[in-house]
Amino acid sequence: MISREKIIQLIEERIAEHDQTLYLVNLKINPGNIIQVEIDKENGYVSIDDCVAVSRNIEHNLDRDAEDFELEVSSAGLDQPLRMYKQYIKNIGQKVKIKLPEKGSVEGEIKSADQNGFVIETKEKKTVEGRRKKEWVVNVIPLRYDEIKETKLILSF
């Protein structure tokens, strides 16, 4: 089986040479040597050239005669959950849906993020004491990454 550490080294090597704003989001090496690499970019979006550069560095440095493999390099899809704190930082200001382990889910806007966690702001209409009509109430919710099941962007067109 192909070494996970070797693949990570090849990815990081190409990122250092090609575009240091890229980063590895996910790496899977399935039985049968199917290598799936998912990358993202700190600002903007991953281009086809970015994927090709990473793919070529892996392919050119692995021996197909020694280990037959299949390689897929792709960008972190918009429909995929956020997996790294850098993705949360990149998406500050975006609306997300967060699945919580026991409390269902919550929707809000990412206000800030760092290595330890992130903060979302939610808005809901509630009856406020002393008022007749419901009013918008803003809640600020700090969350740690280990407190959530998954976070997905809410796409609006």
Structure commentary:
The chain has 157 residues and is of the alpha+beta class. The strands form 2 sheets. It has a 5-stranded antiparallel β-sheet with strand order 7-6-5-4-8. β4 and β5 form a beta hairpin.
Task: Name its key features.
157 residues; alpha+beta; five-stranded antiparallel β-sheet; 3 helices
Quick description:
This protein has helices at residues 4-18, 48-61, 85-90; strands at 22-30, 34-41, 70-75, 95-100, 104-113, 117-127, 134-144, 150-153.
Task: Describe the secondary-structure layout.
Blueprint: H1 4-18, E1 22-30, E2 34-41, H2 48-61, E3 70-75, H3 85-90, E4 95-100, E5 104-113, E6 117-127, E7 134-144, E8 150-153
Parallel strand pairs: 2-3
Antiparallel strand pairs: 1-2, 4-5, 4-8, 5-6, 6-7
